[in-house]
Specification:
Blueprint lengths: L1 E4 L4 E3 L4 H4 L5 E4 L20 E4 L11 H8 L3 E3 L3 H4 L1 E2 L13 H14 L2 H8 L6 E2 L1 H4 L1
Parallel strand pairs: 3-4, 3-5
Antiparallel strand pairs: 1-2, 1-4, 6-7
Helix pairs in contact: 4-5
Amino acid sequence: LLFLSCIFQMDTTQESYLDLFPLDAIVYLTPDSENGKYACFRHTGTRAKVYVLGGLVDESIHKKLTLQRAQEQSLQTARLPIREYMVKTANTKNYHSETLAINQVFDVLSTYYETRSWPAALKAGVSSGKGYGLPDAVK
């Protein structure tokens, strides 16, 4: 797992995030979250949020596993706002997926941190192979 704090500090560890941070500071990023109004890089009170990026090898076998894990641990969840800023594109496989690899999520988050623009961030991290594009690019 990769931990990303709002001040853009990143670390990896073998320790559980549950042992390292208070529950109310943890946001588990999962494409299955209903929370698309993503509040990344905003502080709540005096405590910054810590974002957990999880990784799965096969999204079709483990559907909603990350959401279920977060709910079992009573954690807040969020997803990248792909549905809010992007549109489905026509493609030969009729394939559309909001599930991204960890490096793609990191690219989105780091670009958002730099630009504060979700369209720019999503363009940087969501490949056309996912079946989504920005509205102005699809026309």
